[in-house]
Amino acid sequence: MSQDPDVPASTRDQLILAAGKLFAEQGFDSASTRAIAEACGANLAAIHYHFGSKQALYLAVLDTVCRHHQALYQAEDDPANQPGAFTTPAGTAQVIRERVRSLFGMLIGPRSIPWQSQLILREMTQPSSQHSLIVEHLAAPLHARWLAIHRQVRPQASEAEAQVWALHLPAMLRLLMTARPTMQLIMGVERLDDTFFAEAIRQTADAMILLLRLPLSEEDTP
Length: 222
What we know:
Elements: H1 11-26, H2 33-39, H3 44-50, H4 54-74, H5 89-108, H6 114-125, H7 131-153, H8 159-166, H9 168-178, H10 180-187, H11 194-211
Helix pairs in contact: 1-2, 1-4, 1-6, 4-5, 4-7, 5-9, 5-11, 7-8
């Protein structure tokens, strides 16, 4: 949901933004439609008019989150969208590296939108009554894309191997998102800098590439 700063957001977009922030802070079950309407100065009836129900509003919020995160798969500079991206081991390794970097950036990097990351984290750690929606519209499609890469590279591998490999990135992201306060106490805030996260990206990508028996480029080798 991009918005030109010089153009006032529509009531519908204002409701989605207000709802996203409150759902992220309080969870779907605790955030009230009255609080959402008040947060953007809208009439309570506007939620029914634009969405019909609280669940439909939540689905609209998830659609906004999904479109933001799916943008990387549609970007022209995404290696996966280049001709012959998966025809060589080096090309496949580059796709994996770039997608790891993109997802890190969207969830915990400078391109992240805090309330979106918080909403995803909340649903992962404290599932709401609408948890199936974020699984269906975000988590499952992303998981399926990683599975497709594994099955293309290692068609002889077991289903268990493919499933565990596809969980490497979300597992690392979840660790870094949930354990950040603890890591700050252990390591010091100053050490959780751009260099730290760049190294986390490199090691995560390297691990996934090596598990597929793909080569690391010389510049990626420590």
